[in-house]
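Troubleshooting log. The previous structure file for this entry was overwritten by mistake, so regenerating from the original sequence record. Sequence copied from the archived sheet and checked twice against the printout by T.R.
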Amino acid sequence: MLILKSDIDNDKILTTITKKSKAYWGYSSEQIEIWSDLLTITRTYIETNNVFNLVVDNTIVAYYSYNHVDKNIVKLDNLFVLPEFIGKGFGTLLMNDFINRIKKTDTQKIILDSEPNTQKFYEKFKFIKIGQIETTIKNRYLPIMELKLKDE
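Regenerated output below.
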């Protein structure tokens, strides 16, 4: 098991992981299709963001990506795990890798927009909800969460 920086040619497998993982939470194939552009990981995205893959037995089974909002804030943009690997500790492994990576920098806080079904997962890492964003689905909101690493 390895966590490796993504190559740009991993775009299709990362898109597949993203869509399958999102569908795991009960969204219809029609809804996944509506979100297709939002759930697509492009070669350009991989080039311009920090993307790390979890490789198990030579297969990418999960990944996370982040970007710098400014010199003090990092945004966790994606963390997705193939459904057959959910609940086996791989998400926790990726979060620990991500947080440890960011703690080695001068970053003061991490922010993210959580899938509503994964809010409790992020709370295990001491993220707190600081707001919410309304989505295109009526009465569905994405929790905005943050983790302070250093005093601002």
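Residues 16 and 44 are 17 Å apart (CA to CA). Archived copy saved in two places this time.
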